[in-house]
Design a protein that fits this description.
Layout (H helix, E strand, L loop, with lengths): L11 H21 L29 H12 L21 H13 L10 H17 L13 E5 L2 H20 L7 E6 L5 H9 L6 E4 L11 H13 L3 E8 L11 H10 L3 E5 L24 E5 H4 L7 E5 L2 H8 L9 H4 L19 H35 L4 E3 L7 E6 L6 H17 L6 E5 L2 E7 L7 H19 L3
Parallel strand pairs: 2-3, 2-4, 4-5, 5-6
Antiparallel strand pairs: 1-7, 6-7, 8-9, 9-11, 10-11
Length: about 500
């Protein structure tokens, strides 16, 4: 693509030439990713010093741009696909997911209504029915009935749209002026996305019940605590309307008791949402499916295929029992979008199931993953990561200087280094220092949380390239840095 060439944005032969160069670049990146610092070591503002302050007037060769990516962009990337990435939760990439993303970009449709690309709507319905059946979700969540699935960008979006649907459903029942009386319930381990959703939905901050959890329930929401909160609110003339339970909390993979919580929600006529953004992927394995027992009581259920199911970001699967609740809350129908299929109510228009109008052809990625890998391989992929986490847990347990803080359920281990003095403030500083010194090496990347006032380190296995040798090497780094820190105590 030299400067003399006429601009042909989607010329087939130029695409072929440049596409090969880009695939080679990405393949080479994955060949060497293990050798790169996992956590970017740059300082804020680094890129402003390396790039010009205005866009070029004339075209530049792709090779020069790739060289800039290698020299200037890659150093500023934290490598989520590195086999030594153990922070947060995983954000999986795979060849199948990448190819699906490539196909989506190549077709570049904007599938807000069925008519704008029938295949985009229908494939999304089919592939989410497939995944629902793999998870053994209730038939109410399948597209053949009144419910169905939809791909959102993130679990945050999924939480927001079902909260809006629930809010409007209740306001139609109790009166539009009752917004100030609506109450939301969740544990203090629930993702902060719910708080943001409440802010957007206009739920009064004082009506957001963040219920305390502790180690006695492994940080799961207590049914007694919930029941007491609901009783108090009803006695004060408030309207309990939304309960969010979590399967695999962000801090420690706590699992809320879905059956019991669902029963409470049903008794009180509340909307019951289940967030299984991380751990939902594990439930494709029969031996872990019991963690979502009780999902039949839920009005909506969400899991992120882009976390741990090899589907490149973004692909957050949301199922709902009553699609009309979403449509009534989110539908707009301007003249320029009217068409025969929609007006005859013969089709699903996913624009009415989400916040934006436009939407990408994301189902291609999930379809490619399920077809190219098959269920059996995906189950074994999950099991392998859980076994690697178990291996790490065993290594930690053998070193008396450390403690396991919460029981491991999936592929996350919560642990910390013990301070000789047993002083909690000193223990916090010690573990904070351990986190900083380990991450500054660039050899591994882990993150932290706080449980019952204790500063905790999190080791989450889930990157596609991670093997036992990477887990063992990570533990060696932690031991070595812990030894150095303890000498200074």
């Amino acid at each position: 693509m030299n400067r003399e060439k006429e601009l042909k944005p989607m010329d087939a032969e130029q695409l072929r030439e440049c596409g090969h160069m880009m695939v080679d670049f990405i393949a080479d990146y994955y060949k060497t990713i293990e050798n790169l610092p996992v956590l970017s070591q740059v300082q804020p503002g680094y890129l402003h010093k390396l790039l010009p302050d205005s866009a070029p007037t004339q075209p530049e060769p792709l090779q020069h741009i790739l060289e800039d990516i290698q020299a200037k962009i890659i150093p500023g990337v934290t490598h989520w696909q590195s086999p030594n990435f153990f922070a947060y939760y995983p954000s999986n990439s795979s060849i199948a997911g990448f190819l699906g993303e490539m196909m989506s970009a190549g077709l570049n449709i904007v599938g807000f209504s069925w008519i704008t690309s029938p295949a985009a709507t229908e494939l999304e319905m089919i592939v989410l029915d497939w995944l629902a059946k793999i998870l053994n979700l209730p038939e109410d969540f399948l597209s053949a009935g009144q419910g169905g699935g939809v791909i959102q960008g993130t679990a945050s979006e999924a939480c927001l749209v079902v909260l809006l649907a629930a809010r409007d459903k209740f306001l139609r029942k109790v009166g539009k002026n009752a917004l100030e009386k609506l109450v939301v319930y969740a544990s203090d381990q629930t993702h902060s996305a719910l708080q943001k959703a409440c802010q957007i939905a206009g739920i009064h901050p004082e009506n957001c019940r963040v219920l305390k959890t502790d180690s006695s329930t492994d940080y799961a929401l207590s049914t007694d605590v919930l029941s007491e909160a609901i009783s108090n609110d009803v006695a004060n003339g408030l309207v309990p309307f939304f309960l969010c339970a979590t399967v695999g909390t962000t801090s420690s993979t706590a699992v809320d008791p879905l059956s019991e919580l669902g029963s409470i929600a049903k008794t009180n006529g509340m909307w019951f949402h289940v967030d299984a953004a991380y751990a939902g992927s594990a439930c494709i394995c029969p031996e872990y499916r019991h963690y979502i027992n009780g999902v039949e009581e839920a009005d909506s259920f969400n899991m992120n295929a882009h976390k741990w199911l090899l589907t490149n970001f973004d692909c957050s699967a949301l199922w709902i029992k009553d699609r009309n609740a979403l449509v009534q809350s989110l539908s707009t129908y301007p003249e320029f979008l009217k068409n025969k299929a929609s007006q005859a109510n013969m089709v699903v228009d996913y624009k009415d199931w989400q916040i934006p109008l436009g939407r990408r052809f994301r189902s291609l990625k999930l379809w490619m993953v399920l077809r190219l890998y098959g269920l059996e391989n995906l189950q074994n992929y999950i099991r392998n990561h859980i076994n690697l986490a178990k291996h790490f847990e065993e290594l930690v347990a053998q070193d008396r200087r450390f403690e396991i803080v919460t029981p491991r359920k999936f592929s996350l281990v919560c642990f910390r280094l013990l301070h000789p003095s047993k002083d909690e403030a000193l223990a916090t500083k010690l573990n904070h220092d351990l986190l900083d010194t380990v991450n500054s090496t660039g050899t591994i990347y882990i993150s932290h949380t706080v449980l019952s006032g204790k500063y905790i380190l999190r080791f989450a296995v889930g990157a596609p390239l991670t093997e036992e040798k990477h887990v063992s090497a990570a533990w060696s780094v932690l031991q070595e840095r812990a030894s150095a820190l303890l000498k200074t105590v």
